[in-house]
């Protein structure tokens, strides 16, 4: 695979009328909180809410009439599936998407909404990929690879071209890395326009395959991750060559750091971002000293996060910040205790969300009761003031870190 800036310029001309030219905005609150100048390339606003629509479209536009009639096939459990389905439907090209068994129903439904035929096969993505290649050969279908294709990478590279047009004064660009197609494209574009811009990659620690290959490290690859979009065990070799040449460093983020970064996007900027984008912000947060005094661009590569996961993540974030806290009491089992506790909490300007009153627990003395009160507070310092007020009135109480 060879990828040059002229390929990205060609891709830009081909796809520009059919994709959203997403904005690169200053992250006002995050910039203040982090003490740096942070700019976000909002690919979560792209068609299908992820950058993958760019590369998929660029590849589809290269198909000849016979290939379009025969149709295309792709293997994906997420953003690539929707990107291929969306543009294939718009272009009138039949599309088959192979997904592993056990793919969440919402991802299947979203892909089917764009007119693609979804086939579930295999327990894992590699098994599904093998079936994709078999069907492509058997039925003479054009295979649209999610990242290991120069044409696809050129489409993703239009993000870098747009960023440099929108913010030519950027000093650093941070890009999440999975299979490497996004980074290969963006790095090629950014370096061609301004070789002085530093390019930094971001990976989830559990899928730091490119980090291992380039830096000779030995992070264990595999397992569950919230950064599903970059959970790639075997990145494209040609992408890695480009990354090795143009990217100054690759940093990794833990699952906790990625989760906190997703919450930061939502709470500070009111942006829904998926785990891959969270990895990028986590890497920025982990290296603030390096970014001081620089204008930093971050590719928010997508916003497709499961709503149930997001709900849980928000609650965990509120607990982590002290805005939702469980208070545990051991009280005398006499009338008026709960009313007094509620009154003190209210006078402290907090809200009671839930009350759990236990009399039957054998660990609690017979004439006493265990009481859990979930409250909504301003922050951790507010919780400390509430605890002080309750203890002042004689209550035995502790704050728990879970809800």
Walkthrough of the structure:
This protein has 403 residues and is α/β, with parallel strands linked by helices. The chain folds into 3 domains: 5-47 and 152-316, Rossmann fold (3-Layer(aba) Sandwich), CATH 3.40.50.1100; 52-143, 3-Layer(aba) Sandwich (Rossmann fold); 322-400, Alpha-Beta Plaits (2-Layer Sandwich). The chain is 46% helix and 19% strand. The protein has helices at residues 5-15, 28-34, 52-60, 65-70, 79-91, 105-113, 125-139, 150-166, 181-193, 209-215, 237-246, 255-269, 275-286, 288-291, 307-320, 337-347, 380-392, and strands spanning 24-26, 37-42, 72-75, 95-99, 117-120, 142-143, 172-176, 198-204, 249-253, 295-300, 324-332, 351-358, 368-376, 396-400. A 6-stranded mixed sheet has the order 1-2-10-7-8-9, with helices on both faces. It has a 4-stranded parallel sheet with strand order 5-4-3-6, sandwiched between helices. The mean pLDDT is 93.
Note the topology:
Elements: H1 5-15, E1 24-26, H2 28-34, E2 37-42, H3 52-60, H4 65-70, E3 72-75, H5 79-91, E4 95-99, H6 105-113, E5 117-120, H7 125-139, E6 142-143, H8 150-166, E7 172-176, H9 181-193, E8 198-204, H10 209-215, H11 237-246, E9 249-253, H12 255-269, H13 275-286, H14 288-291, E10 295-300, H15 307-320, E11 324-332, H16 337-347, E12 351-358, E13 368-376, H17 380-392, E14 396-400
Parallel strand pairs: 2-10, 3-4, 3-6, 4-5, 7-8, 7-10, 8-9
Antiparallel strand pairs: 1-2, 11-13, 11-14, 12-13
Helix pairs in contact: 1-8, 3-5, 3-8, 5-6, 8-9, 9-11, 12-13
């Amino acid at each position: 695979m060879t990828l040059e800036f002229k390929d990205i310029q060609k891709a830009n001309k081909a796809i520009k009328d059919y994709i959203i030219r997403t904005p690169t905005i200053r992250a006002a609150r995050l910039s203040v909180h982090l003490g740096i100048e942070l700019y976000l390339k909002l690919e979560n606003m792209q068609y299908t809410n992820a950058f993958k629509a760019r590369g998929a479209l660029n590849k589809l536009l290269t198909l000849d009439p016979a290939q379009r009639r025969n149709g295309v096939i792709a293997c994906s459990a997420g953003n690539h599936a929707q990107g291929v389905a969306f543009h294939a439907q718009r272009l009138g090209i039949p599309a088959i998407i192979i997904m592993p068994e056990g793919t969440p129903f919402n991802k299947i439904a979203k892909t089917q909404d764009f007119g693609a035929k979804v086939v579930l096969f295999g327990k894992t993505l590699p098994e599904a990929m093998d079936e994709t290649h078999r069907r492509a050969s058997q039925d003479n279908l054009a295979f649209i690879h999610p990242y290991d294709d120069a044409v696809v990478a050129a489409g993703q590279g239009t993000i870098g071209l747009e960023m440099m047009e929108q913010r030519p004064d950027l000093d650093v660009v941070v890009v999440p890395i999975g299979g490497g197609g996004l980074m290969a494209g963006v790095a090629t574009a950014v370096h061609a326009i301004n070789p002085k811009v530093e390019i930094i990659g971001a990976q989830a620690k559990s899928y730091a395959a490119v980090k291992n290959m380039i830096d000779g490290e030995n992070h264990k690859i595999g397992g569950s991750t919230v950064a599903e979009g970059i959970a790639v065990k075997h990145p494209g070799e040609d992408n890695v060559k480009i990354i090795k040449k143009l990217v100054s460093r690759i940093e990794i983020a833990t699952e906790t750091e990625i989760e906190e970064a997703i919450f930061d996007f939502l709470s500070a900027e009111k942006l829904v971002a998926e785990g891959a984008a969270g990895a990028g912000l986590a890497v920025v947060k982990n290296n603030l000293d390096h970014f001081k005094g620089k204008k930093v661009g971050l590719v928010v590569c997508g916003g497709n996060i499961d709503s149930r996961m997001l709900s849980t993540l928000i609650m965990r974030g509120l607990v982590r910040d002290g805005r939702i806290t469980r208070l545990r009491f051991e009280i005398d089992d006499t009338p008026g205790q709960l009313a007094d506790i509620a009154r003190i909490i209210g006078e402290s300007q907090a809200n009671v969300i839930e009350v759990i009153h236990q009399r039957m627990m054998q660990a609690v003395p017979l004439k006493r009761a265990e009481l859990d009160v979930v409250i909504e507070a301003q922050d951790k310092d507010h919780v400390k003031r509430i605890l002080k007020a309750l203890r002042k009135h004689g209550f035995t109480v502790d704050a728990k870190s879970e809800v």
